[in-house]
Design brief:
About 80% of the residues lie in helices and about 0% in strands. It has about 230 residues and is mainly alpha-helical. The chain has a single domain (about 10-225), classed as Phosphate transport system protein phou homolog 2, domain 2 (Methane Monooxygenase Hydroxylase, Chain G, domain 1, Up-down Bundle), CATH 1.20.58. Helix 2 (about 15-30) runs antiparallel to helix 6 (about 115-140). The longest helix has about 35 residues, at about 155-185. The chain is elongated.
Length: about 230
Amino acid sequence: MRSTNPIAALFGKSPIRPMQKHMAVVAECAARLGPLVAALQVGDWSRIAEIKDEIFALESEADDLKNEIRSLLPRFMMLPVDRRDLLDLLSSQDDIADAAQDVAGLLSVRRMAVPAELADKVEVFAARNIAAVSQCRDVINELDELLATSFRGRSADKVLAMVDELAGIESEADALGMELAAALFELEDDLEPLDVFFWYKLVHMMGRIADQAENVGDRIRLLIAR
C-alpha cells in the first residue's frame, strides 16, 4: 500500500529533499525577524505579537519535519554518509529556528523602546544574521548534488566556497554585535537597568542565529572532509 505520509512521499529515494524542506522552513522562520525588528523600531506591539506567533508556528513546523525525518531516516540503507552525521546536521539546522524563536519570545514579553543611537545598528545586525541563514539555506540546497557526487569533486569545491562565505557573514554579524554592545554600554546610565539587561540579552540571542547557521556550515565541511 502506498504511504499517505507527505513527508515519506517527499523522501523518495533520498533523505536530502526533506532536509532541504526543513531548512527552507527554518530560513523563513529567521527571515521573519526582519519585520519583527521593523515593528520594534516603531513600537508596534500588536504587529510584534502577530510576527511572534508566525515565528512560533514556523518553529513548530520545523520541529514536526525534524521528527518525521528522524523517524524515516533508518529506511535508507545505502548512503555515502553516516546517518548520525545527517541527524547532527538536522539538529544544527533546527537550532537556528530555536534561536529565532528565542528572540521573538524575548521581544514579546517586554516592551522596549529602541534608543535612537541603537536604531540603525539593531537593524543592520538583524539583517546580517538573517543573511547568514539565507546563505546556510543555499548551502543545504546543494546537498543533493553533493550526495550525487559522494561529497567530492567540483560540487564539493563549490560548497566549500559557499561555506567560507557563510563563515565570513557570521564574522561580520559577530563584529556588528560587538559594536551594538559597545554602543549600549555608552547608554547604560540613560536607560532603565532592566532595559539594559534585556538589550544585552537580545544582542546575545540574535547573535546566536548566525552562530547556529555557521555550525551548519561547519558540519557540511566535516562531511566533505571525511
